[in-house]
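Hi V.,

You were right to ask for the full record rather than a summary. Here it is.
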Amino acid sequence: MTQASGLPGQRMLSFPLGGADETGRRPWSEGVASIREVLWNILMTEPGERVMRPEFGAGLPGFLHRPNTLGTRQIIADVARAEIARNEPRIDIVEITVNADPLDPGIAVFSLLYRMRATGAEDRMDLSLSLAGGA
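Predicted structure:
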């Protein structure tokens, strides 16, 4: 397999891994779809979850019972920034914000703005994280 760069025509095994497609092959993704899948994988994987890469993952689901405070949200942003920078070389992080949802004290809104190195195009990924109420 060629090194992933986000260029059109370069493909990576699709995530999450599923069964074979109608042709009997594993699904592949490329370009923006591949980058988004890898980012999701990085953010949602708990450290220690991967047998051969125990340090991999930002572990955002692990913040479930943490309070929705400025400190918790800053830790989420810092961990995500470090893991993405270490594990996704096809992008540059432009901005990561984690803010309290003004309508629900138990929700933090994670936003990642990034630039694809191969094309210079920007994309955004937004996630709502359930936390334990805030102050």
